[in-house]
Write a structure and sequence with these properties.
149 residues; Alpha-D-Glucose-1,6-Bisphosphate, Chain A, domain 4; 7 strands
Length: 149
């Protein structure tokens, strides 16, 4: 298993920052590498909500299907995804902090077959860069006023 942790204080209100991360429709407006989001049948929010997200990774795009596994607004959201022989399990934690909202993302990548077990540790720096890029994009969004179109 590969664990990647990234943290950042976002200059925004706890509820708004949580909503920006937890609502896929809002995230697609804020994070440039998220190209599209498709809601899947079932709940639209909270545990059991499912969505497909297409992201740009370098020159390629990748679509992954996520399901919300834990939801305690505005403090915690956990999403899971089984793709490419890996169980992706990401927990987002939010708490008020001086200057805004402190966000901590913990992503576990559990290789379910031999190839991901071998490759995921080598990919850890890329995973960290992607998570940090997500945090940086949300930070920039709130620094510039935090308004979507």
């Amino acid at each position: 298993m590969v664990l990647v942790v990234a943290e950042k204080t976002i200059p925004g209100d706890l509820d708004e920052v949580f909503r920006t991360f937890a609502d896929p429709d809002r995230a697609v407006e804020v994070v440039p590498c998220i190209l599209s989001v498709e809601r899947l049948p079932g709940p639209t929010e909270g545990v059991g909500a499912r969505f497909k997200e297409t992201r740009q990774h370098g020159k390629r795009s990748m679509t992954m299907e996520f399901e919300v596994a834990e939801f305690d607004a505005p403090h915690t959201q956990r999403i899971k995804c089984m793709e490419h022989g890996t169980m992706w399990d990401s927990t987002f934690k939010f708490k008020e902090a001086p200057g805004g909202t402190h966000v901590r993302i913990e992503m576990n990548a559990l290789g379910m077959s031999l190839l991901p077990r071998l490759l995921n540790p080598l990919m850890k720096p890329l995973f960290r860069k992607g998570i940090q890029g997500h945090l940086d994009a949300v930070h920039e969004f709130f620094e510039s006023g935090g308004k979507t179109e």
